[in-house]
Specification:
This protein is α/β, with parallel strands linked by helices. The chain has helices at residues 17-20, 33-37, 56-70, 81-84, 94-109, 125-128, 136-153, 166-175, 186-211, 233-256, 261-266, 280-284, 315-320, 347-360, 394-412, 455-466; strands at residues 10-14, 74-78, 113-119, 159-164, 217-221, 226-228, 290-294, 299-303, 329-331, 365-371, 379-381, 389-391, 417-423, 442-445, 450-453. The strands form four sheets. Strands 1-2-3-4-5-7-10-13 form an eight-stranded parallel beta barrel, surrounded by five helices. A three-stranded mixed β-sheet has the order 6-8-9. Strands 11-12 form a two-stranded antiparallel sheet. It binds ligand GBH. Ligand GBH is lined by residues 16, 19, 164-165, 168, 222, 294, 296-297, 299, 319-320, 334, 343, 370, 423, 430, 439.
Length: 469
């Protein structure tokens, strides 16, 4: 059965500044925490950095031309904070602003709406030197930065997104140390959670103060779809605990102006939450038009008895469970056919997530702001293809189809889903995994910067053109 999407459904592709731009030393940009992290031995799998990435800083006209060919209506990109505010003294870097003005203008001329993420993980190093997200001041600085963006770029942006995936920034950045800045301290990770929440609230306030109530403001979360292994009381308690730490800690203050007190109870061994000041929960609770949801895979959990306590030191478990020590949650190894990231494929999880969110927050628009999969691609020579090359990526095509169908299922059960963004437009710098994992629907040859179409891009173009699947 063919399903036709609403006429204004927003099809797009997504990237992030550090992952695609390159040009790290150009036009007055100063280092961010990822520049520093990439110099630490062993921090990034292939020893690489965002140094050249996809060179989108220079090649954005070519990439916009690709998006025109794809037919997408929107591009979700992020702005590099250290290009705009390169030092601790509050200097505003005009060269950085000019660059993004040109890029946003080019997008709009191509009929592509810019969806701009204020912060997708490239925190200026000078802020990390003063405590980074573990410090309250960083949230205030984000508000200053968002104010500058709204003032300088406000008329060019379709949708503002304050933050991308604070879960990753806090728990991977300050908890297990897998991401920059590489801190391992769960007390700091929870402080980072709160300061990121606060940054969202203050950032949204700053943008609205500049642009008025019409400003279209959102935030992007990677909510965990936790599935209890059995229906037992204990396994359901484990799921509930996992939901609290991964999801409620963001949703509660953002949409209800409060942290569930159970969160304080569950995290007692790590912190007393004294970093939450009077009025913070209301500061975080700002009106937003939409919530962006990034979805890749699901997480299966069960109750962990004391005998499994040793599992907490296992690296892959640490990655999957934000609160490993003294915890009742055991994360099960992913099952079924795994992607090159080792993640499971469970599109039904996306349907569940969207449906439950819409039931809980009926007035809120939802956007699938990232969805995609990494595979070990190979280039095939094919004279008829543009450039004489193509990547046949049937698994990415199947993943794409299944997840777009999962969105359809959610729409049909009443979820308010307004758009879908493929992660990613291009292969790019996959954080701690460097260039070893490829998420693009278009391949990047990192030696030549050539862009090579994949079957998944052709498939996405078809879905967008038909506005149907
Ligand atoms: C996103 O993060 C980022 O926004 C983006 O920059 C990044 O390139 C992209 O996704 C691809 O990684 O180990 O099986 O339990 C992804 C967030 C959080 C998704 C952890 C997978 C664990 C899966 N990820 N989650 S598992």
């Amino acid at each position: 059965m063919t399903y036709t999407f609403p006429h204004d459904f927003m099809w797009g592709t997504a990237t992030a500044s550090y992952q695609v731009e390159g040009a790290l030393h150009e036009d007055g940009r100063t280092p961010c925490i990822w520049d520093t992290f990439c110099t630490l031995p062993g921090a990034v799998a292939d020893g690489s950095s965002g140094q050249s990435a996809c060179d989108q800083y220079h090649r954005y006209p070519e990439d916009i031309a690709l998006m025109r060919e794809l037919g997408v209506k929107a591009y979700r990109l992020s702005i590099a904070w250290p290009r705009i505010m390169p030092d601790a003294g509050g200097t505003i870097n005009q060269l950085g602003i000019d660059h993004y003005r040109r890029e946003l203008d080019a997008l709009r001329e191509a009929g592509i709406m810019p969806v701009v993420t204020v912060y997708h993980w490239d925190l200026p190093q000078y802020l990390e030197d003063h405590g980074g997200w573990a410090s309250r001041d960083t949230a205030l600085r984000l508000a200053d930065y968002a104010d500058v963006l709204a003032r300088e770029l406000g008329d060019r942006v379709g949708i503002w997104t304050t933050l991308n995936e604070p879960w990753c920034c806090a728990y991977l950045g300050y908890g297990n140390g897998e991401h920059a800045p590489g801190v391992r301290d769960y007390g700091k990770a929870l402080a980072a959670v709160h300061h990121l929440n606060l940054a969202h609230g203050l950032g949204a306030q700053a943008i609205r103060a500049r642009l008025g109530d019409d400003a279209n403001i959102s935030s992007v979360l990677n909510l965990s779809v936790n599935v209890a292994e059995t229906d037992s009381e204990a396994d359901r308690a484990a799921k509930r605990r996992a939901d609290l730490i991964a999801n409620e800690v963001f949703l509660g203050p953002m949409f209800e102006g409060r942290y569930d007190p159970e969160i304080f109870e569950a995290t007692k061994p790590y912190t007393d939450w004294s970093f939450v000041h009077d009025g913070d929960e209301e500061r975080i609770h700002q009106p937003v038009q939409s919530l962006g949801v990034n979805f890749y895979s699901t997480t299966h959990v069960r109750h962990r008895g004391p005998e499994a306590a040793g599992a907490a030191t296992d690296a892959s478990r640490l990655r999957r469970n934000p609160m490993p020590a003294q915890d009742i949650v055991e994360v099960l190894p992913p099952a079924g056919e795994l992607t090159a990231m080792g993640w499971n494929q469970e599109p039904r999880g996306l349907t569940t997530l969207l449906t439950e969110l819409s039931e809980r927050f009926p007035g809120l628009d939802l956007i699938v702001s990232e969805n995609g999969s990494a595979w070990d691609d190979e280039v095939t020579l094919e004279p008829d293809a543009p450039g004489g090359k193509i990547v046949h990526d049937p698994k990415r095509v199947a993943y794409l189809d299944a997840h777009v169908r999962a969105v359809v299922d959610a729409l049909q059960s009443g979820a308010k889903v307004k758009g879908y963004f493929a992660w990613s437009l291009l292969d790019n710098f996959e954080w701690a995994l460097g260039y070893s994992k490829r998420f693009g629907i278009i391949r990047v040859d990192y030696d030549t910067q050539e862009r090579i179409w994949k079957d998944s891009a052709l498939r996405f173009r078809q879905i967008v053109a038909d506005n149907a699947i």
